[in-house]
Write a structure and sequence with these properties.
With 412 residues, the chain is mostly beta strands. The protein has 2 helices and 18 strands. 4% of the residues lie in helices and 49% in strands. The longest helix is centred in the first third of the chain and has 10 residues. It is globular, with a radius of gyration of 21 Å. The termini are close together.
C-alpha cells in the first residue's frame, strides 16, 4: 500500500474532510449484506533531547520551553515517547450504500507510550478518543456528526511536515504528552471537538465546509459558554499545469460573556475571531508551503487558550489581544526512499494600548526544523530532526533551546 494512501486514511481522513473508504485501508473484512470493517493506524516512537536556557528573571508569562521544569538553570532533558501525532489505531465501519448515500463510522484511539513525570510506575497510556464520528456522503455533499478535528487552522497543522515527526520539544511539564511540532510556533492547535459539519460536493476541486461546534472558554474569566462556536473552510486541490496545488481559507467566530465576578468588564462579552490561509505547490520532488493566521482573542498555543498560559487571549482589562503567525516550508524527495525538509514558523501577539503593568507577556515564539526522513519500505519510516526554538517576551528578553529528535514510524 502506498504511503500516500496510508496518510490519507490515517491523517487526512482524521481531519474528517471525507468519509473513510475501508476499501483503501490496510485490512478490510466484509460482513453480511454489504457491511465492511477496516482498520488503519500508526505507531510512532521518538527519542528526544532538549537543552534550554533559563527563563529570564522577573515576573513574566510562562514559557512552553520550560514550564514546569527548572526555570532558573539550564534545562537538559531526554525522553522516549511519541511525536506530535500520537500513535493511533482506528476502526472504520461502512454501511451498505443506500439510496445513493455512503454512511461510515470512524473511531480513532490515540495512545501515548511514555511514562508520566519521573515515576516509572505511572504507565498510564493516556488513551485519547480523539475521533468518534459518522459521515453520510451523497450527491448533496457530506454530513459529519461527532468528535473530529476542527476546521479552523486544521489544514495549517495537517500540511506541516512535523505532523508525523517531532518538531518543537516542550518543557518537562508536557512529559506524558505529545511534542509540539509548530503548535504555538507557527500556528495554533485547532483541537478535536464535538461538532456537526456540512461539506459541499467537489466543484472542480473546490469544497466549502461549515461547522457548528462546542464552544470553548475564551479566557480564564469566561463565565458562560452559551453560544456555539462557528468555523468554516473553503479549500481547493488540483493541478495547474504539471504542478499539484492546494489552497485554503478558514475562519472562526465565538462570543462568550465574562463572569459577573470578573475583576475587569464583568458580564461583558469577549469574542474570538480568526482567519487562516495557506497554499502549497508540488513540482516534481519539490513541495513548498506557506500558511498563516490572524485574529483576536485566540491565544498563543491553542485556538482560544481559556486559562492556559495565563490567558493570553485577553489582557488584564478584559480586552482581546491580537494574534498572528505563519509557517514557511520546503521539502524535497531526494530519492524514492529519502526526503529532506526545512521549515520556520512564528506565533506572535500584540500588547494592547493602555494595558496595565503586570507580568511581562510573551511577544513571539519561533522555531526552525531541519528534517531527514528515510523509508525502509512502504510501511516503515525513520526520521532525524534538529530543532532550534526561541521565545521572546515584550521586554526583549529571550530564551532559546537546541533540540534533537530521532524516531521511527510504522503505518498500516
Amino acid at each position: 500500500m502506498k504511503k500516500s494512501t496510508v496518510l490519507a486514511l490515517g491523517l487526512v481522513a482524521a481531519l474528517s474532510l471525507t468519509a473513510v473508504k475501508p476499501g483503501n485501508a490496510a485490512f478490510v473484512i466484509g460482513g453480511e449484506n454489504g457491511w465492511q470493517l477496516s482498520t488503519d493506524g500508526i505507531v510512532d516512537v521518538f527519542a528526544t533531547y532538549a537543552s534550554t536556557t533559563p527563563k529570564p528573571t522577573g515576573a513574566r508569562s510562562l514559557s512552553l520551553l520550560s514550564i514546569g521544569g527548572n526555570e532558573t538553570q539550564q534545562d537538559q532533558h531526554f525522553g522516549v515517547g511519541i511525536g506530535l501525532l500520537p500513535s493511533v489505531i482506528a476502526f472504520n465501519v461502512k454501511a451498505p450504500t443506500t439510496n445513493g448515500v455512503d454512511s461510515s463510522v470512524r473511531v480513532g484511539i490515540y495512545p501515548n507510550i511514555q511514562n508520566k513525570g519521573s515515576n516509572r510506575f505511572d504507565t498510564s497510556p493516556n488513551i485519547d478518543f480523539r475521533e468518534f464520528f459518522y459521515t453520510a456522503k451523497g450527491a448533496y455533499g457530506e454530513l459529519l456528526a461527532g468528535r473530529a478535528l476542527n476546521l479552523y487552522q486544521g489544514k495549517n497543522i495537517l500540511n506541516d511536515m512535523t505532523l508525523l515527526t517531532s518538531g518543537t520539544i516542550p518543557g518537562t511539564a508536557f512529559k506524558g504528552g505529545t511534542t509540539l511540532g509548530h503548535i504555538g510556533y507557527g500556528y495554533l492547535y485547532t483541537n478535536f471537538g464535538p461538532q456537526i459539519r456540512y461539506t459541499t460536493p467537489d466543484f472542480g476541486g473546490v469544497k466549502v465546509a461549515i461547522e457548528i461546534a462546542e464552544p470553548y472558554k475564551i479566557s480564564a474569566d469566561t463565565g458562560k459558554t452559551n453560544s456555539p462556536r462557528f468555523e468554516t473552510e473553503i479549500s481547493y486541490a488540483g493541478k495547474i499545469g504539471t504542478a499539484a496545488v492546494q489552497g485554503w481559507l478558514s475562519g472562526l467566530y465565538q462570543s462568550a460573556p465574562r463572569s459577573e465576578t470578573a475583576a475587569a468588564r464583568p458580564g461583558k462579552d469577549n469574542q474570538s475571531v480568526g482567519g487562516a490561509a495557506g497554499a502549497s505547490a508540488g513540482f516534481g520532488g519539490l513541495n513548498v508551503l506557506l500558511s498563516g493566521y490572524y485574529g483576536k482573542g485566540l491565544g498563543m498555543v491553542s485556538a482560544q487558550d481559556g486559562d492556559f498560559l495565563e490567558s493570553t487571549s485577553t489582557d488584564a482589562l478584559g480586552n482581546e489581544r491580537k494574534h498572528w503567525g505563519y509557517l514557511a516550508q520546503a521539502t524535497y524527495q531526494l530519492t524514492s526512499s529519502v526526503k529532506v525538509g526545512a521549515n520556520y514558523g512564528q506565533t506572535r501577539q500584540e500588547k494592547n494600548d493602555n494595558e496595565p503593568a503586570g507580568p511581562v507577556i510573551m511577544k513571539n515564539q519561533e522555531s526552525a526544523v531541519m528534517m531527514v526522513a528515510y523509508n525502509l519500505n512502504k510501511f516503515t519510516q525513520f526520521v532525524a530532526e534538529y530543532i532550534y526554538a526561541q521565545n521572546t517576551w515584550m521586554d526583549g528578553k529571550k530564551q532559546h533551546s537546541n533540540q534533537i529528535a530521532l524516531g521511527t514510524m510504522f503505518y498500516w
